[in-house]
Design goal:
With 270 residues, the protein is mainly beta. It contains two helices and 23 strands.
Length: 270
């Protein structure tokens, strides 16, 4: 039977203000859980090890509050603000997939989430926060547009990306045969892998250096230029070159991408 839990935005806004915790029931506690949390503004801290899914939310003042005050200068005299009317959080559960969304730009909404160890995540934050994950085993898809991404003592597969911030990852075990990606535009990429990890490394940094204590066997760059001819449609003739280098560790395996424009890449052996 399908189980679904919906917590309305105004209820979660009140809970956030009080810093209360919400326990979200899942359809089948014996099976792994998937958490999908998307924030417009705020941080996410997710920790594995509990037997249930517990979500704590907290709104904090910031630039969004300043924007709100600016809007209030245009309110007619005599009008009063009704507290708790902002869009808060929506949480839903369907077949062990828990989705958390925030629809408010007015304030940062920081989430603290406790989950069972066997949990996959899809975590995204746009502004004003960081994403920290620790102690879980699953598929991790983490994206923070303006902030750091830190994954500690995780297992499974990882896709971690930020535009402005560092990416720091420590993995205990790797799910075999699956590609992974660790990327930043403006920041350092610092990844620790198990010593027996087998992978083909794709390494790209524009303004930085690559370091590793693995025995990396470098490969010849056999990539070919990519030609885009848009002249027939009023465009331009372009030639794109892949300036990355390739290498393998422990005999090679699935492709692991390490990429940053402004920053170093560090690949540690655990």
């Amino acid at each position: 039977m399908k189980t679904q839990v919906m917590i309305l935005g105004f209820v979660l806004a009140a809970l956030a203000a009080a810093q209360e915790k919400v326990t979200v029931p899942v359809s089948n506690p014996a099976l792994p859980v998937t958490i999908k949390a998307h924030l417009l503004s705020g941080s996410i801290t997710l920790t594995g090890g509990g037997s249930a899914v517990v979500v704590e939310s907290q709104e904090e003042s910031g630039r969004g509050r300043a924007r709100e005050r600016n809007r209030e200068t245009n309110i007619p005299p005599g009008m009063k603000k009704i507290a708790g009317a902002n869009a808060g959080l929506d949480i839903s559960e369907d077949h062990n997939v828990i989705t958390i969304k925030s629809g408010s730009w007015a304030a940062n909404t920081n989430l603290v989430i406790q989950v069972p160890v066997n949990t996959s995540v899809e975590l995204k934050s746009v502004n004003g926060g960081h994403i920290d994950v620790s102690g879980i085993n699953g598929d991790l898809d983490v994206e923070c547009t303006n902030g750091t991404v830190t994954l500690k003592d995780v297992s499974g597969t990882v896709v971690a990306h930020t535009i402005n911030g560092n990416v720091t990852v420590t993995m205990d075990k790797i799910a075999g045969g699956k590609p992974m990606s660790f990327t930043s535009l403006n920041g350092k990429v610092d990844v620790t892998l198990p010593g027996d990890a087998k992978a083909r490394l794709r390494l790209k940094t524009t303004n930085g250096t690559v370091y590793s204590d693995f025995d990396v066997k470098m490969e010849a760059d056999d990539s070919k230029p990519v030609i885009e001819d848009g002249r027939g449609k009023g465009g331009k003739y372009k030639i794109k070159m892949d300036r990355g280098v390739y290498g393998s560790i422990n005999g090679g395996g699935p492709e692991f991408l390490f990429q940053t424009m402004n920053g170093d890449i560090l690949i540690h052996k655990k």
